[in-house]
Amino acid sequence: MIAAVPPPPVAVVKAVYPQTPIRVERTCTVGRSALVRLRVRGRQAYVALERPARRWRVVWVDGSVVRSIAPARRAAVAAEVARLRTRCLAP
Question: Which of 21, 24, 72, 75 is deepest in the core (most CB within 10 A)?
Fold first, then answer.
């Protein structure tokens, strides 16, 4: 059996939940941002990523901006995530 390498956003999301089995339900990429919908222990979760340079970086997890984001950028990140949610989660 050959195991394929997951797409880069999925690998970064797995790093958020390292010891927990996850199931990625949907990945939506818009420009340099991505929103990933997944199941963690049977519960639905969302993770937003951005790609400012060459690597994906987690900026938002389940309703809050991560602490590594500078306070001056948090409002902009929250607005970008709101835009991603309306665009990616629309039926």
Answer: 24
